Amino acid sequence: MGLFKAKKEEEVRTIGVLTSGGDAPGMNAAVRAAVRTAVHAGMKVKGIRRGYSGLLEEDFIDMTTRSVSDIIQKGGTILYTARCPEMLRPEGPEKAAYICRKNGIDALVVIGGDGSYRGALEISKHGVNVVAIPGTIDLDVASSDYTIGFDTALNTAMEAIDRVRDTSASHERCSIIEVMGRKAGHIALWCGIANGAEEILIPERYDYEEQNIIDRIAERKKLGKKLHIIINAEGVGDSNGMAKRIEAATGLETRATIIGYIQRGGSPTCRDRVFASAMGARAVDILIAGAENRAICFRKGEFTDIDLAEAIAMKKDIDTELWDISRKLCR
Ligand code: F6P
Q1: Which of 30, 131, 272, 273 is deepest in the core (most CB within 10 A)?
Q2: Hey, which of 81, 114, 138, 154 would you mutate to test ligand 1's pocket, going by the most ligand atoms within 8 Å of its Cβ?
Q3: pLDDT tens-digit series, residues 48-86
Q4: Ligand 1 center to residue 275 CA distance, Å?
Q5: Is the pTM above the cut of 0.70?
Q6: So which residues are the catalytic ones?
């Protein structure tokens, strides 16, 4: 039985909400939905600022329906976010759980990526109920086919790459365009297809044989191709160095563009607003229903939730069907 069910009716029921790790467009929509669903059910909400760092420092704000007005369209997170090395040490999660109890926080709603999930699981081992919501532009939360912010980041990167493509075409250049994703190539793969790239380099599949890329560029050049777009996932390596080497080997003017944090900001797309709202609301609904230590997911076209430890144990590859399609289209 969950904490809320276990409590007597007259007891105050309070949830804490935090965003953690890299921010993602749509996090605000999830915060808003969690806060409003909780307030609607008569609960109190403490907003925890700067993720787990703010939790350990008790940086809380009481949140009402009004605290989350006018935020659904905003990028970033009004709760601020941080990466918190202290949570990686055993005393971090224990202290976090103690602080939750001390402040009457019965359950935590954590919005973030893989690392944030692991922090949430560790806190739960010290007796605090947690629900995790997948929030990262990288799409690399294994338990969910959707993560908050991926759609917005993709569209931002796609538009930026179109612009680079225009100028590369005018100058008959090769362009290496680096997108985010230190350990995951989802953004690179989707943009590679959407932007009609000749090469897509992702950490999950790249063989690190640069000569193969050079040979393919030379072949395409011989066939009369004047524009070459290479989408490089951040995790694959140094785009500037690669550009210099490709130019030296092919004689083709080559430039690197690193899109960087531009793709992590900006107003969320409709999909990110709506899906994040559904996930934020579901997190609180399942707490009300007595759930314990769950991960909110979108799987096989449906919103659902699974055990948090199980979610963390899952592994995710890139979409192999999309990868196979890209192999036929990148020419
Ligand atoms: O949030 C995910 C992500 O944007 C990755 O794609 C990237 O590698 C990383 O965060 C960058 O993190 P930071 O903000 O710490 O530089």
Answers
A1: 30
A2: 138
A3: 999 999 999 999 999 999 999 999 999 999 999 999 999
A4: 22
A5: yes
A6: 138
